[in-house]
Amino acid sequence: MSGLGRGLGSLIPNKKLNPVILDDGVVIDEFTGKREMVSEIQIDKITPNPHQPRKSFGEAGIAELMESIKEYGIIQPLILSKIGSDSWQLIAGERRWRSAKALGMKTVPAIVRDMSEQKKMEIALIENLQREDLNVLEVAAAYQKLIDEFNLTQEQLAQRVGKNRSTVTNTIRILTAREEVHQAIRDGKITDSHAKVLAGLPEDDQLEMLNKIINEKWTVHNTELEGKKIVIKKNLRPLHFDPEVRAKEEELQRALSTKVEIKKSGGSGQIIIRFFSDEEFREIVDKIL
Q1: Is the pLDDT of residue 39 over 80?
Q2: Comparing 36 with 54, which gets the higher pLDDT?
Q3: Which pLDDT tens digit goes with each residue over 220-238?
Q4: Where on the phi/psi map is residue 277: left (φ > 0), alpha (ψ -120 to 50), or beta?
Q5: Shortest CA distance to 80 belongs to which of 138, 124, 18?
Q6: pLDDT of residue 262
Q7: Gap between the Cα atoms of 149 and 241, Å rounded
């Protein structure tokens, strides 16, 4: 597959996922102008979207939405896809669905659409990106899933989401950072910019700097300065490295299922492949051969 067609590029940032609702229970899809009916669907017949990029929904946010639904009802219909004779899958609106379930509602208003798996994944990502309530780790995972599922290059993905290639690359590389960095992102203890600097450092330095960021309340500027010092001291590549090199690292990491580091200077360099057991070593060798 060469790309996503209209995909993300046509929907971000100018398009919204809010259909125009008419008085007679009909909505107009602003992408196509098509009129669609809003139906009441039983909550217990709906299953979550497996492509949902957001992993944390936040109790406070759900509580606020529940209060809004109690007062005004569900104003924006959910978007569903029929997956059986009497079952539906969420495409967009999981917070509304969770809140309605918590309130004991029996049905929710929804628009039912026939969509491919690719389109479901696109819309789940778009909805959350538009609301800007994904953390950078969730965005990175969603980007990587789109790349893996639909055989996209980072350049193609960057075009679809309206970002430049380096932004996409630097976001995705956060997936290779230590788990402690990931947890700090989830807990809101560090910013996206902190995380991007940490992800470009060796693992041991990541943990030491993470602790300083949290305990000494380092700014992003402090973090960047200290990161550059580590790069110079250890003769590593600059933090603003060649995105093509990082892209090749990521391709190798996916192919070999382990951490891979490319150190390149001019036309020469090294490819370092990490393994953590004899069994993993043999598996890597078999894959290469």
Answers
A1: yes
A2: 36
A3: 999 989 988 887 777 655 5
A4: beta
A5: 124
A6: 83
A7: 26
At residue 20, φ and ψ (nearest 5 deg) are -75, 125
| DSSP classification of residue 33 | -
Cβ neighbours of residue 98 closer than 8 Å, sequence gap 6 or more? 57, 62
- Tokens 């350049």 map to which residue? 155
In whole angstroms, give the CA distance from residue 197 to residue 194: 5
Per-residue tokens: 126: 């778009």
Domains present along the chain, CATH in parentheses: 7-127 (3.90.1530.10), 135-242 (1.10.10.2830), 243-289 (no CATH)
Give one DSSP letter per residue of 53-64, joined into a string: ------HHHHHH
Residues 153 and 181: beta-carbon distance below 8 Å: no
Supply the pLDDT for residue 8.
Answer: 40
- Per-residue pLDDT tens for 249-272? 888 888 887 778 887 766 678 888
Q: Which amino acids are annotated catalytic? A: 94
3-state helix, strand, coil in the chain (%, to 5): 50, 15, 35
Please state, as a whole number, how many other Cβ atoms lie within 10 Å of the Cβ of residue 60: 8
What is the token pair recorded at 245? Answer: 């090199």
More confident residue, 51 or 160: 160
The two structure tokens encoding residue 52: 């949902």
CA distance 205 to 198: 8
Residue 237 pLDDT = 54
Q: Please give the pLDDT value at position 33.
A: 55
Structure tokens at 53: 């990029």
Q: What is the pLDDT of residue 185?
A: 93
